Amino acid sequence: MSISYNRIALIGLGLIAGSMAHALRRAGFEGEITGYARSAETREIAREINLVDRVCESASEAAQDADLVVLCVPVGVMGAVAKEIAPVLKPGATVSDVGSVKQAVIDSVAPHIPEGVHFVPTHPMAGTEHSGPRAGFAELFDNRWCLIVPAPGSDPQAIDKIDELWRALGSTTEVMEIAHHDLLCAIVSHVPHLIAYTMVGVADDFSRVSEQEVIKFSAAGFRDFTRIAASDPTMWRDVFLENKEATLEILGRFTEELFALQRAIRTGDGEQLFDYFTHTRAIRRGIIEAGQDTDAPDFGRGKS
Ligand SMILES: NC(=O)C1=CN([C@@H]2O[C@H](COP(=O)(O)OP(=O)(O)OC[C@H]3O[C@@H](n4cnc5c(N)ncnc54)[C@H](O)[C@@H]3O)[C@@H](O)[C@H]2O)C=CC1
Ligand SMILES: O=C(O)C(=O)Cc1ccc(O)cc1
């Protein structure tokens, strides 16, 4: 697998950009990696830990002369960053992003992409609850999906090149259509995060149980919720604001199901509860048998 870019710029130096930098080096990338983050403190840390070859003082400085510029900032600011770097992008270069939402990012970034510059959005389906320049690690993308979500008119050759890059970083890739991506991610990622945030909030609010007791007696299920609910607030605020329609669609279905289960509990309908849980257990087993559960002991293919 070859990486066909000589200079790669990473804008935003957090978990994803940091992991890309580590994975690029692991893959033997010999070109230059430049980077920029808005906060001076992040830039300072990035220099200190040698995260990229050159930490720049502006996004434009980092993007200048790059063959590939990857926007690794919260989805709400992708458009502003694209606008800022547009004047320095060289003809033939590719702009990509790693945002968790695609339609809104395409709508805000595409209008700023100059003639002769390619735009190929992507979304690595891998992350942790940690953020910032120290959070990245080379194995993050190993055996995880990276979805390639072409914008209208994305160049097939530019798509192939970014696809090769993600495979070199350890991912398995799949090309996906924009609306399908946003709905799928609302189901498998965005709404589950919202449920985790809510459950942790409810536990905290529950006045009869002190916070200490919640932590002390928490079983695995709640602990998973607390891990997820520790994710970066800026990133997740932007995800919900920018994937509004799909999130509300899935939340609507979720609350319908929740009300049905609530009613079954109230009326003592054990059969309905049993049937429901039997069905969901089969889904979990299907995931494990398909080898899709990276956290299961048999398939421990990387950290999450
Ligand atoms: N954390 C995760 O699990 C995953 C995140 N993503 C997406 O990747 C992107 C980055 O996420 P993380 O790396 O987790 O976030 P992070 O919070 O670790 O890093 C974001 C970086 O962007 C910088 N930044 C913020 N606004 C900026 C601006 N206007 N100009 C320049 N830099 C700016 C911050 O200083 C920080 O260095 C987001 O769009 C997110 O939706 C995608 C897959 C997984
Ligand atoms: O840590 C988790 O549970 C995740 O779900 C990771 C993740 C978070 C956001 C994404 O856009 C993709 C993957």
Question: Any overview of this molecule?
Answer:
This protein has two domains: 7-176, NAD(P)-binding Rossmann-like Domain (Rossmann fold, 3-Layer(aba) Sandwich); 180-268, 6-phosphogluconate dehydrogenase C-terminal fold. The protein has an eight-stranded mixed β-sheet, sandwiched between helices. Helix 4 runs parallel beside helix 5, helix 7 packs across helix 9 (220-228) and helix 7 crosses helix 11 (244-267). The model is unreliable at 296-304 (pLDDT under 50). It is globular and about 65 Å long. The longest helix is centred in the middle third of the chain and has 28 residues, at 178-205. It is 50% helix and 12% strand. The protein is an alpha/beta fold. Helix 5 links the parallel strand 5 (94-97) and strand 6. It is built from twelve helices and eight strands. 3-(4-hydroxy-phenyl)pyruvic acid is lined by residues 100, 125-128, 189, 228, 304.
Which parts are unreliable, with pLDDT below 50 for 5 consecutive residues or more? 296-304
Percent strand equals 5-15%
The share of residues in helices is 40-55%
CATH homologous superfamily descriptor of the largest domain: NAD(P)-binding Rossmann-like Domain
Rg, Cα atoms, Å = 21 Å
What small molecules are bound in this structure?
1,4-dihydronicotinamide adenine dinucleotide, 3-(4-hydroxy-phenyl)pyruvic acid
Catalytic activity: prephenate + NAD(+) = 3-(4-hydroxyphenyl)pyruvate + CO2 + NADH
Organism: Rhodalgimonas zhirmunskyi
Pfam families: PDH_C, PDH_N
Domain Prephenate/arogenate dehydrogenase: 6-295
